[in-house]
Specification:
The chain has 8 helices and 6 strands. It has about 250 residues and is α/β, with parallel strands linked by helices. The protein has 2 domains: about 5-20 and about 120-245, Rossmann fold; about 25-115, Transcription Termination Factor Rho, Rna-binding Domain, Chain A, Domain 1.
């Protein structure tokens, strides 16, 4: 962590989830398949709750068609065909790895049912709980910024084998704040937390996200978990475990 990290200024930690606190395989091999398998069931059994989401999906799909992206056809001649169209469009968005706010909201609601019934359980790396506890003792706040909805974030951290970790987390940010690769998103987080940008340390496995955060004035660390592919650029301080992030916040010995 030698590059440009000024540990004496850090008072808050902002964390990515996938590949940072949580294994990539959990997201791609557990959460995503679960959402795909249950989206039709969810839209049919929660019609009132899902009605607005379906309208938003239809509008986003129309925008995609206008842009020439060739999304699946949408049919409105019956309730069932409308739901089938929504399901196909959700699957298409997932195949595109679209960071769509409405997609993430729908996924979050589907996962909520899975977490509540015990079919899903959150997963974090072994070093996450000790780090959360250490930062709390140091009176630093821990926040999350993920493409997944705030609901999905809370459910993941609430149901880990290490226990309910939400007690350590001060705030959650998702795509309603803005894209994770845009500087303005991090500026909004700075404003929301009422801090100076350099007081916030953002930790992620994405160089592009870290670049955006650094442009906004945040400090940054690239998290490269064992077994993960190393990025082509490593012009941010690099760690492989939170155990090596030993920060003394201002005002403490």
């Amino acid at each position: 962590m030698s590059l440009s990290l000024d540990e004496t200024r850090v008072n808050a930690i902002l964390l990515d989830i996938e590949g940072t606190t949580t294994p990539v395989d959990f997201v791609h091999k557990v959460l995503f398949p679960y959402a795909r398998e249950h989206v039709g069931e969810f839209l049919r059994s929660h019609r009132g709750e899902a009605s607005e989401s379906i309208q938003q999906l239809r509008a986003e799909r129309a925008s995609d068609a206008q842009r020439g992206l060739a999304p699946p056809a949408w049919q409105e001649d019956s309730v069932e065909r409308r739901i089938q169209s929504a399901v196909k469009y959700v699957e298409w968005l997932m195949d595109c790895d679209r960071k769509s706010t409405v997609l993430k909201a729908v996924q979050g609601m589907i996962w909520e049912a899975g977490y509540r019934t015990g079919q899903l359980r959150g997963e974090v790396y072994a070093d996450v709980l000790p780090a959360f506890a250490r930062w709390q003792r140091q009176r630093m706040e821990t926040c999350i910024f993920s493409s997944g909805s705030t609901l999905a974030q809370k459910l993941l951290f609430e149901t880990t084998p290490a226990g309910d970790l939400t007690r350590f987390i001060s705030a959650y940010f998702d795509t309603t704040t803005g894209p994770k690769r845009e500087r303005e998103s991090y500026g909004r987080i700075v404003a929301a937390r009422g801090r100076q940008p350099s007081e916030i340390l953002f930790i992620s496995d994405s160089v592009e996200e870290l670049d955006a955060a650094r442009e906004a004035g945040m400090q940054t660390i690239l998290c490269v978990r064992p077994g993960s592919a190393r990025p082509h650029r490593e012009d941010h301080p690099v760690v492989e475990t939170f155990d090596s992030i030993l920060i003394s916040p201002r005002g403490m010995a």
